[in-house]
Amino acid sequence: MAISSRTTDFDSLHRGGPPGRVQNQTPLLHTLGGPRDLDALTPDQLVSLAQEVREFLVRTVTQTGGHLGANLGVVELTIALHRVFDSPRTPILFDTGHQSYVHKLLTGRQDFSRLRARDGLSGYPSREESRHDFVENSHASAVLGWADGMARAKQLQGSGEHVVAVVGDGALTGGMAWEALNNIAASPQRPLIIVVNDNGRSYAPTVGGLANHLAELRENREKVATWRDGPYRTPLVTEPETGDQRNGASSLPSNLFEALGLSYLGPVDGHDLTALESALRNARTQGGAVVVHCVTRKGCGYAPAEECEEDRFHAIGVVHPATGIPVKTPHKDWTSIFAEEMVALGHERREIVAITAAMLHPVGLSPFASQFPQRVFDVGLAEQHAVVMAAGLATAGLHPIFAVYATFLNRAFDQVLMDVALHRIGVTFVLDRAGITGPDGPTHHGMWDLSILQAVPHLRLAAPRDAEQLRKQLRESVAVDDAPTVVRYPKGAVGPIIAAAGQINGMDVLLGAPDSIGTRPGMLRADVLLVSIGAMAPISLEAAAILAASGISSTVVDPRWVKPVNTQLPALAAEHRMVVTIEDHGCVGGAGSMLAQAMREAAVSVTLHDFAIPQRFLDHSTREELMDDAGLTGPAIACRIAALLAAQKEADR
Question: Are the CB atoms for 449 and 434 separated by under 8 Å?
Fold first, then answer.
């Protein structure tokens, strides 16, 4: 029962009305209040439902942005999962969670009008949204560990219920997945079903030996199994010389999962509902740990996605549904500035190489890869290996640049600490999406890196305020060959160039006199020292302008290098009534914490206030909304500073 081959006029669908008001266009979908409503549908209705789900996803996600390609690829698979297993009694876990949109639709969450926006649905599984969601995940490769733990608990409790883990082939490139498989295989009697959603991609095509192995299994599909007309059966093979028939299992290619001691079913056509249901029911009947290998097509059924070789529309902004063309031309962003400078550095320095963890395009390394294909290494979703490999590359005489989302460096802290910093190795880490990122929610906000990296000896960390500083500080970073360096910048459009009025000991003075420290004995330089970190410079200057209008003077400095703290920054702080750090990072362990410690060590008693992100998990929303919530706007900062100064003056009387 393959999906319908008819084409859909997505342009007419787009004209049908806003997201969330599409009941007339998806009559079957909107009769579903929960997974068990699928039981009453006929085979023909299930095919129609799959088509409706695709139409719904294209209509809505092209208007809100989100993860489109991965969800188009799991429509039939998710329908089959909910037909065979009774969620939430049987937990269905998704790795990574961006492929859970169809799961949301089938479990009663059909208003996608504010997908990934404030008060709307999360782009990932969410316990707050539904009892059908168990793991709020978007960091890959973790779900098999969750599933192993839940299956152990069910076994101990005598439940007998299965746990189902849906894991993409891209997520299987991560080391945690193999740690979990090693443990699952040690006790294969546990009731655990691992559904491998094999589309040959994470963002880009999946790389590595496992990808090659899955490709081999796909290519031998007809030798492995047939599912269309009933339960699993091993095909008979005719010997060419004797004409005798024998069981075909002995002729199959070696299978890694079976070698681990796990039962294996497949490959199964991931867009054939009958085949999928048959395979999943067979796995449920077998008992114990079973791998069901499903072959899907990312972006299936939507031509613009299927024709996009870069990422099959893995994650999109607002696009025209008929063409897939972005509705708005984006401004130049931080990632593109980095991409341009990487190419320039590549031409100048042959020892520079680049590393990506399955995110060549999102982190801006594709232009470098186009010109220097032999100098880019994609390790899959394996950040820990990426860092250790970088140490090896540097030890052998190269300068590796590992470009990664700030939130994903969290996964490799031990390797940064013990494999790079301990050995004083020159590796550069470029942290994209640092700070508040917006609609991807708590797992993607890059607000932990300064806290984590503050503890790493020898490490130097730069936070550029604009495109010019990003270019300069990237070059300064790769010039260091005896310690790790980090460059962090946010998601989104890069602002205007902000010129410095001068420098004090390497710190850029953005507002105020760049006099040397100590040149005004007995006099204050200004009321407030605003220490602006990275891209917070425009907000800091706006706050200073508002304060000036009420008679409060400010000095605004950009330290450029946040770690280590500039040796003269405490002395500069001593020339002001108050110090305020303004940073797009968590308030615990960030730049303000580092400066406070440096001031204590220098016996500088000026009061310091850290204006930063609250140290909690932030929900999905726009960056602007979350910054406003945190009080990180020019007017809010100015108001708080004025009140703090007034209270301080009152206390001094």
Answer: yes
